[in-house]
Design brief:
CATH architecture: Roll
CATH class: Mainly Beta
Strand order of the largest sheet: 3-2-1-4-5
Order of helices and strands: EEEEEH
Number of strands: 5
Structural class: alpha+beta
Largest sheet: 5 strands, antiparallel
Helix content: 10-25%
C-alpha cells in the first residue's frame, strides 16, 4: 500500500519545491506539477509532488489523518 500526503508548498526553485506538513519541511520535485505555486497543496509521494489538491480537500484529508493517529473516531 502506498500513501501520498497533502503538504503545502512554501517555496519553489525551478523544478524543486519545499513543502511543509506539521512543521516538517522537505524538498520535493515538482516536475510532474509545473503549474504548482507557493501556497498550493501538493499530493506528495516519495519525494515527488504527483498532483495538486484543493485547499478545502487538503484540510479535510489532513484532519482525517490526524483523527486516525489519535484514535479520535476516524474511519474504520
Amino acid at each position: 500500500m502506498c500513501i501520498a500526503l497533502p503538504a503545502m508548498i512554501v517555496s519553489i526553485d525551478g523544478e524543486r519545491a519545499v513543502v511543509e506538513l506539521d512543521g516538517i519541511r522537505k524538498a520535493v520535485s515538482i516536475a510532474l506539477t509545473p503549474e504548482a505555486r507557493v501556497g498550493d497543496y501538493a499530493i506528495v509521494h516519495v519525494g515527488h509532488a504527483i498532483g495538486l489538491l484543493d485547499p478545502d480537500e487538503a484540510e479535510r484529508t489532513l484532519a482525517l489523518f490526524a483523527a486516525l493517529g489519535t484514535g479520535d473516531g476516524g474511519p474504520r
